[in-house]
Amino acid sequence: MKELSLFAGCLIPNRYPGIEKSTKLVLDRLDIKWSELKEAACCPAPGIYRSIDKITWLTLASRNLALAEEKGTDILTICNGCFSSLVDANNILKNDGVLRNEVNSHLKKIGREYRGTIEVRHIIEFLYKDVGAEKLSRFIEKPFEIRAAVHYGCHLLKPTKDRRLGGAECPVFFDELVEATGATSVPYEGKTSCCGAGGGVRSAMLETSLRMTEYKLERIKKAGVDCIVDACPFCHLQYDGGQVELAKTGKTYNIPVLHYSQFLALALGATPQEAGLNLNEVIYRGFEEKIASIQKTSAK
């Protein structure tokens, strides 16, 4: 298995360091060889730079790719947006010599070159393809008896022709990884619809953004789950911080939100604090007590 360079992106270190903390714990406990991608910068955000200036987007993304190429490692992302930006830029530059030459003319000014020798992986895609749900289940120390609402997020699934992860409209690969922990992935209406954060909607039209989140939360609550499990810090922010914002309007959901790295870390034996749950916005004592009870029972 090729060594991975962990690309934390911008949002996780700045808003959700618990996700970064739990990801490193998970990689270590699964004996996956990894290292930091030092000097990495913003991916850059796919909904902004790519929409305004393609060459600027490709150049900024290719600098990150070149850093990993210099190390001889693939990039591991833990954010759907970072994955989308970097994997799409990598695919475009590998297949378009004209754009590759133009980008390299800019990289040359800082002593770097993009060669197209590495791959970009998302932690969900990597665990599903390279580890597998069945093998992953053998590492589980404290199986969950929890009902989870799985949220894939848009950039992990689409564009379908590029992601090739199977079933963009009715995917199952993330659900299988969640159920490898012993949990139950609960179906709910609107499962693959947007959380409301993407494309700059949260920044430009917060009210509209929260209406989209409310649509999701209503259906998740109706499904009767213990928590939401996501794969992206921006989706995580929308559900986690979004619940705090919606509570100000009188709409209370109290649904804990966990990135899959946090969820898996708990199943691998980490405490809630080791998994960074205390750094999330919406974690309620009842949920923490349920996790503690499950872990105590499993230890017996």
Anisotropy-based shape = globular
Number of helices: 16
- Stretches with pLDDT under 50, minimum 5 residues: none
- The percent range for helix content is 40-55%
**Which strand-content bin applies to the residues?**
5-15%
Can you summarize the main beta sheet?
4 strands, parallel
Secondary structure layout:
Blueprint: E1 4-7, H1 11-15, H2 17-29, E2 34-36, H3 49-52, H4 54-71, E3 74-77, H5 80-95, H6 97-107, E4 120-122, H7 123-131, H8 133-137, E5 147-150, H9 154-157, H10 160-163, H11 173-179, E6 184-185, H12 201-204, H13 206-222, E7 227-230, H14 233-247, E8 257-259, H15 260-267, H16 285-299
Parallel strand pairs: 1-2, 1-3, 3-4, 5-6, 5-7, 7-8
Helix pairs in contact: 2-15, 4-5, 4-6, 7-11, 13-14
Q: What are the main properties of this structure?
A:
300 residues; alpha/beta; Glutathione S-transferase Yfyf (Class Pi), Chain A, domain 2; Rossmann fold; 2 domains; four-stranded parallel β-sheet; 16 helices; globular
